[in-house]
Amino acid sequence: EDEGKGQGGGEVDRTPAAAFVALVDATGTEEQLEIAKAGVAAGLEALPPNAKFGIASFEGDSIALFDFRGTVPSSASIPLGVPAAAASPSAQHDDTEDLGPSALGKVVPLGWFLADATAAHKEAATSALDAIAPLASAEIDPRRNLLAEALACVVGYVSGGPQGDDDVDEGEEDAGGRSRAAEAGVACSRVACFLHGPAPAGSRSRNLKGGRGRRQGVVSPTEGFWEDLGSFASRRGVTVDLYATAASTSSAEPFDLRSMRRLPELTGGRLRLYPSPGESNAPQDVFAALKEPVALNATLRMRTSNEFDVSGVFGGLVEDPRYPHLYHLAACGPHACFAFDFKFTGSGFSREPELKPTVQLAFRYEVFAPVHRKAEAEGEDKGEGREYAMQRRLRVYTKQFPVAKSALDLYEGADAHATICVLVHKLARVVEDQGFQEARALCEDWLINLLGEYNLSLNRRLLDQGGAVENPDLDFVECKALQPLLPLVYGLLRGTSLSASVFAQDPDRWSFLRSCFASLPPKDLSCALYPQLSTFSNNRGYRRVPLSWRHLNENEGVIYMADALFVVVVYYTREAQQTQEWPPPHGGLIRREIEDLGMARSVQPRAVFLREGVEDGRVFEELLLDEPAKVGTGSSADFGYDEWRAELAKEVADFLASPP
Questions:
Q1: 61 within 8 A of 125, measured Cβ to Cβ
Q2: DSSP 3-state helix, strand, coil percentages of the chain (rounded to 5)?
Q3: Closest Cα partner for 25 from 13, 14, 12, 36?
Q4: What is the pLDDT of residues 524-543, one digit of tens each?
Q5: CA angle 299–386–369, rounded 5-degree value
Q6: What whole-number distance in Å separates Cα of residue 302 and Cα of residue 300?
């Protein structure tokens, strides 16, 4: 149900607005900066007219804040890591205090920094972006890289109050901080940081609450800084997106996304990694992030009937320390995904039909949505002049579930994509705590136990009579709901999530995928784990072709398209080059397929077009997971799908021969 009396589904507050703030790293190359500027411009185009925006640039050891009050934007360069009085002589505080967001506000008040997203201001923003130039190499001192500090200052600045030693206890709503931001007409902010190099945790880390113990495994020693900053930003209603673009595919200096990923995860933001400016989809990703509807400053409460209770939660939810089963979300888009574990509180579920297990979700949030006006209802003024306002809403969803009558009934009620989603979440924690080898072993054991128990239930009568199962069912032939599961687990074992070698060689790529997997909806995650391969011939398509050369050669298609969520690879065979138009024509079947994929997802896939014998085909070949792996992960899946399946059949047969 909606909370409040406003038209259009909520109580309307016409004063505060949503703000988009761009922080551009000017220490990158000219190509990197051009992509960042295009991303900012795309974000501005996605904003409604009465939203607000601000632009800042990072210049190694200083921040430049743009002021849009005049006809021509001006900027103020504010040094970082120096006494506040040195940055603002009129500031009345101790010279030993480091420059923070309060000092930023004294140099450029937040109301000057944030401008309405009108056509005139957007044109001024173009001039401001043109003024951001890459720093000369002589101006960049790696020892004075204070990007982490700059980002922390900007988060505190747009939230309307100082960051660090917060006057709000952990988990408490910070109404005071948000009210200070509301003085500048801001109810919530979304900060997009365009990264072009690493952001080592700076001097402000000492001002952030920390000291908690860190787990062993792949957790970075500097993760605490970003986790604390994320908690602070979440309490203040600030969402942070990180768009990291490397200078080139051979760039040797990592971003340290292993640590930084906690910031967007805890604030409901996005983390994107682009291997080079030429392979960057940043403008499309920024536009999509700001165009989609987002729930802001949200709380989610989970209630269950007495027989069971919540035992664990996965995703970007932050549990309230005072109230059980109450979770906070700074931002939640339509593609965000969360998962819950349950445990019995007694002997199990009742068999009485009137006592079905029940779950209730109460989701309370704010949304910056168009205001339904009388003129629009009469068919007038439907253009870009539509007014947007903050609305408070409440959704309550109650669901009762039937109790399975048998084990097979339980399997049939499962969902393969949701199952693999929860498995990925749990194994990610195992990787962080105990490492990759233990995670792979647990994944393989889990699958053997699942298939073993399934075959025990399927062949109970035969086994009770002393018979043996000669050919275990590995494909869930008798359980349609779980039939997609086996290839997905194989893809998980073959992929980057459980690969120690990928983590060692490219920790940024591993961290980027780890962060994305933490929030992807089940079907999108399934596509990322095990790509969808289609073939085309004479404008006809063939779906779900196995990921191997043998099956491709047996198929009638001559154009292959592999969809791996983040990238879509179109491969023209030699035969296709003779009979089909190259490149795929706009408006054709293949182009329409790619456009539809981008519209249906939060991730904008990068399209790669290859010709056999002309371009390097390794990008396509790497997606043929059914083939033996070129780089091993330590799993039997390294030998290819058929060999892995044969080995799995032996393990399940051993399980059935001596069940637990």
A1: no
A2: 40, 20, 40
A3: 36
A4: 999 999 999 999 887 677 77
A5: 5
A6: 7
Q: Angle CA(215)–CA(252)–CA(143) in degrees, nearest 5? A: 75
Dist CA 158 CA 267 (whole Å): 14
To the nearest 10 degrees (0 to 180), the angle between helices 522-529 and 485-494 is: 60
**Which tokens is 358 given?**
């029940």
Q: What is the DSSP string of 103-148?
A: HHHHHS-HHHH-EE--HHHHHHHHHHHHH--PPPGGG--GGG--HH
Q: How far is CA 265 from CA 229, 254, 260, 318, 326, in A?
A: 11, 19, 9, 10, 18
Q: Across the chain, what does the average pLDDT equal? A: 83
Residue 453 confidence (pLDDT) above 90: yes
Secondary structure, 3-state, 578-603 = HHCCCCCCCCCHHHHHHHHHHHCCCC
Question: Helices in 212-281 by DSSP H: which ranges?
Answer: 223-235, 257-260, 262-267
Classified as helix, coil or strand, 154 is helix
The DSSP bridge partners found for residue 302 are 361
> What count of Cα atoms within 13 Å lies in the side-chain half-sphere of residue 152?
31
Nearest-angstrom CA–CA distance, 583 and 98 = 56
CB within 8 Å of 595: residues ≥ 6 apart = none
Opening angle at CA 250, ends 248 and 252, nearest 5: 105
Q: What is the DSSP letter of 83?
A: B
Query: Which pair of structure tokens corresponds to residue 102?
Result: 């309060």
pLDDT in tens, 474-525: 999 999 999 999 999 999 999 988 989 889 889 999 999 999 998 899 999 9
> At 93, is the pLDDT very low, low, confident or very high (cuts 50, 70, 90)?
very low
What is the residue whose two structure tokens read 């790669």?
Answer: 608
Comparing 25-39, 234-248, 371-385, 410-424, the range with the smallest average pLDDT is: 371-385
| Eight-class DSSP state of 72 | S
Query: Closest by alpha carbon to 156, among 132, 129, 174?
Result: 174
* Residue 164 near residue 258 (C-beta atoms within 8 A): no
Q: Provide the whole-model pTM.
A: 0.84
Residue 13 has pLDDT above 60, yes or no: no
In angstroms, the CA 418 to CA 106 distance is 50
CA angle 150, 153, 155 (to 5 degrees): 110
Peptide bond into 583 cis (omega under 30): yes
Q: Are 151 and 193 in contact (CB under 8 A)?
A: yes
Q: Which two tokens stand for residue 109?
A: 């008040």
Return d(Cα 533, Cα 547) in angstroms, integer.
Answer: 7
Dihedral Cα 496, 499, 501, 507, nearest 10 deg: 50
Rounded Cα distance between 124 and 399, Å, is 51
Q: How far apart are CA 15 and CA 147, in angstroms?
A: 33
